């Protein structure tokens, strides 16, 4: 029971826990037991057992987990149908996307075969289809065209004497560039996966990825316009190359090859119609209509010879690595982000989990091994993965079936695609980008939901269009990171109140049912405190608490300096007075030796000097109207008091909170003191909410996940500065890593751990017990009167 002006009973709930108390409880653990636990963990980590070895091998080769339990009767037919469907899609898409990579179409078939076989053994997703993909094909094409432009392979035709491009030499070098980039990108993925860096894909937010793929789709469309219209624009590279290419294509439109344009338009119409039919009849058709394979044959620019068989592995050209390392890293990150996002979507739908780091290793090995067989960078395809899942695919056996389809085509059926017009492949690319064109509706959605994500979307789209895919990706990620920094620099600061009947503390502005705890300010930031927002955190604390600590401390120190000056003047006056008395006594002694003198006369002279001194002092009071005189505290922990009134005999003793805005502070100093004259013009009302009702401030750091040196210094200054005006500071809700960082930074060298509490409620109870002697209101909060020393 706490007795005060209003008698209120507070029921005992639990012990108040601060950091010091928690350490005492943890030290009760026997040291020998701790040593035993440590030894046991160390021994288990170094022990090599059969189950542990099995888990390691299965984790690296997920196929060993599901293949021994594979049921041919349950999964065989669905996987076969799914694999055939995906394999049929692999053929035209592989050749079409190879054109995006500026490579001969056959290398798209290679990229659809080898990586899928490798992923079968190392991949953890059961439904994604590994192979060529639009975005990566465009990114590879930007690298091959940059390092192997047509201008570097010009030769003079011996027959006509006209310069022309040596297509064979150019394509051969472009294949080397693509293979080297793929091997390097795959190696980066494997290294990141082995280092458990599977989280790197999280830095590519969904708005960023969707905007990036939308801009890449625009690049793909522009790259196919020359094939659709049958024109030959100049090749540009670097920033704004898309703008230059578009201007050049528009300038060549009068030279359009009409048969090529007609074939392209007809192919696009037929493909769109067939895809719509497939979508509407999806439930009735077990296998989608392979309309993409129905080529149109006429005298146009053809695919050309497709060599039969498979190519032997070759070593990549290592001299190309330094020129493509940045592009390889971009391919590695973008490909992984697309694959793992698709994998997680299907895993969530079908109730299994995928390992992000293992997916990085699997995709890396697929690219690295494929690069030795002259493949270019691959990842999961959105359209083929959707077909594999909707046609009933259950496992990666569907990937094996699709690889067999591609293998048979390369071995025996390649000649069937030699007369396929490139305009048809361009139309296939164009139609398959339809899903990415729909992503432009994100602008409307993000405008309604999140303006910052909309800005990220627009900046990513514009930068990717203007700066090309590699620099656009870097600029987009950098801008996205800046938005995170900006949002942590401007978090929401709030003062919390208590929800009656609970131990919850909520924002006073957002919840009407919560009540402010008298005398205690509970301050919380929605973001962690670090160097970028530490100063803003301090300013927000001043504003929310109503205590402009900077002005108050400056004012107090000035008063202390003036008090020291007055003390020195008083000491000098006392010294002069003592000197006069001593001189008077000496003169009186001399007169006593030299003759008779009057004691009453000498006493009268001394009395007159004393009255003059008193009158001088009293004149200082009478010359000031409605004056207020501050009396400094004897100890640093005492609050300031003041004497208010015009008559020194009727002055009253008051506290700082009794002052009104019109009260002008005067300090009884001489009129020649310039600093004193300046301070006399300062009204206490201009110093902010000068109130002493707050005796404690609790900093809720539950949102902080780390503390850097700047934030640590800011917290230490908060403790010191508010302590100067007799306001106690407490910290509550710190996570264990934050407490460790405070200890490592020496925060508790001059601040005791009694100021650190497990929860806000513990801190509030402690403050009430410490400061609530006879002043607690009738307030609905449960206080525990613990005998435990905190």
Automatic annotation (TrEMBL):
GO terms for cellular component: membrane. Residues 510-767 form the STAS domain. The keyword Transmembrane helix applies. It is found in: Membrane. CDD domains: STAS_SulP_like_sulfate_transporter. The chain crosses the membrane at residues 97-122, 177-199, 256-274, 458-486. Residues 563-583 have a biased composition (Basic residues). Residues 558-601 are annotated as: Disordered. GO terms for molecular function: secondary active sulfate transmembrane transporter activity. Keywords: Membrane, Transmembrane, Transmembrane helix. This is STAS domain-containing protein.
């Amino acid at each position: 029971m706490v007795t005060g002006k209003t008698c209120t009973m507070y029921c005992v709930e639990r012990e108040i826990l601060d950091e010091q108390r928690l350490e005492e409880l943890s030290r009760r653990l026997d040291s020998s037991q701790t040593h035993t636990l440590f030894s046991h963990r160390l021994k288990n980590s170094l022990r090599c057992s059969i189950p542990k070895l099995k888990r390691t091998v299965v984790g690296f080769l997920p196929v060993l987990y599901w293949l021994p339990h594979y049921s041919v009767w349950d999964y065989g037919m669905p996987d076969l149908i799914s694999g055939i469907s995906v394999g049929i899609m692999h053929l035209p898409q592989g050749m079409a996307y190879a054109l995006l990579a500026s490579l001969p179409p056959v290398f798209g078939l290679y990229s659809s075969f080898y990586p899928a076989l490798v992923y079968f053994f190392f991949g953890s997703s059961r439904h994604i289809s590994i192979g060529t993909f639009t975005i990566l094909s465009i990114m590879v094409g930007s690298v091959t065209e940059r390092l192997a432009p047509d201008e570097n392979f010009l030769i003079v035709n011996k027959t006509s004497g006209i310069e022309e491009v040596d297509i064979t030499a150019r394509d051969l070098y472009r294949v080397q560039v693509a293979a080297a980039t793929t091997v390097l990108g795959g190696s980066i993925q494997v290294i990141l996966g082995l280092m458990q860096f599977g989280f790197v894909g999280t830095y590519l937010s969904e708005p960023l990825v969707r905007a990036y793929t939308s801009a890449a789709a625009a690049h793909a469309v522009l790259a196919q316009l020359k094939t659709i219209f049958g024109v030959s624009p100049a090749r540009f590279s670097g920033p704004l190359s898309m703008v230059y290419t578009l201007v050049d294509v528009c300038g060549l439109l009068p030279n359009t090859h009409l048969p090529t344009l007609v074939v392209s338009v007809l192919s696009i119409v037929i493909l769109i119609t067939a895809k719509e039919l497939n979508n509407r009849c999806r439930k009735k058709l077990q296998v989608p209509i392979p309309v993409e394979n129905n080529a149109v044959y006429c005298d146009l620019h053809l695919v050309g010879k497709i060599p039969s068989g498979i190519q032997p592995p070759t070593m990549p050209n290592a001299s190309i690595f330094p020129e493509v390392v940045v592009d390889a890293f971009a391919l590695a990150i973008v490909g992984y982000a697309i694959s793992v996002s698709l994998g997680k979507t299907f895993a969530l739908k079908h109730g299994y989990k995928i390992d992000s780091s293992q997916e990085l290793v699997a995709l890396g090995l697929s690219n690295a091994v494929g690069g030795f067989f002259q493949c270019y960078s691959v990842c999961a395809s959105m359209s083929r993965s959707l077909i594999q899942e909707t046609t009933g695919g259950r496992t990666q056996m569907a990937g094996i079936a699709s690889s067999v389809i591609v293998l048979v085509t390369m071995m025996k059926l390649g000649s069937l695609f030699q007369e396929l017009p490139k305009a048809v492949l361009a139309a296939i690319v164009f139609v398959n980008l339809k899903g990415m064109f729909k992503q432009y509706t994100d602008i409307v959605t993000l405008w309604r939901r999140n303006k910052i994500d909309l800005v990220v979307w627009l900046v990513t789209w514009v930068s990717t269009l203007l700066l090309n895919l590699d620099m656009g990706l870097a600029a987009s990620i950098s801008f996205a990171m800046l938005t995170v920094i900006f949002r942590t620099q401007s978090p929401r600061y709030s003062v919390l109140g208590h929800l009656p009947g609970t131990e919850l503390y909520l924002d006073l502005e957002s919840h009407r049912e919560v009540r402010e705890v008298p005398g205690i300010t509970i301050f919380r930031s929605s973001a962690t405190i670090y160097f970028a927002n530490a100063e803003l955190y301090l300013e927000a604390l001043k504003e929310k608490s109503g205590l402009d600590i900077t002005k108050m401390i400056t004012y107090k120190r000035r008063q202390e300096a003036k008090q020291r000056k007055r003390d020195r003047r008083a000491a000098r006056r006392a010294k002069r007075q003592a000197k006069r008395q001593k001189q008077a006594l000496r003169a009186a002694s001399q007169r006593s030796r030299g003759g008779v003198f009057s004691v009453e006369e000498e006493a009268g002279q001394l009395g007159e000097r004393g009255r003059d001194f008193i009158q001088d002092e009293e004149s200082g009071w009478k010359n000031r109207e409605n004056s207020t005189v501050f009396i400094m505290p004897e100890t640093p922990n005492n609050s300031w008091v003041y004497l208010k009134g015009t008559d020194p005999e009727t002055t009253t003793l008051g506290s700082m909170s009794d002052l009104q805005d019109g009260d002008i502070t005067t300090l009884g100093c001489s009129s020649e003191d310039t600093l004193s004259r300046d301070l006399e013009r300062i009204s206490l009302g201009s110093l902010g909410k000068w109130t002493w009702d707050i005796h404690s401030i609790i900093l809720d750091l539950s949102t902080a996940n780390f503390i850097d040196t700047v934030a640590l210094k800011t917290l230490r200054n908060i403790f010191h500065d508010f302590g100067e005006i007799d306001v106690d500071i407490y910290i509550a809700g710190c996570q264990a890593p934050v407490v460790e960082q405070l200890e490592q930074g020496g925060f508790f060298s001059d601040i005791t751990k009694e100021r650190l509490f497990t929860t806000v409620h513990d801190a509030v109870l402690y403050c009430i017990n410490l400061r609530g002697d006879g002043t607690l209101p009738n307030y609905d909060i449960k206080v525990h009167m613990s005998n435990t020393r905190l």
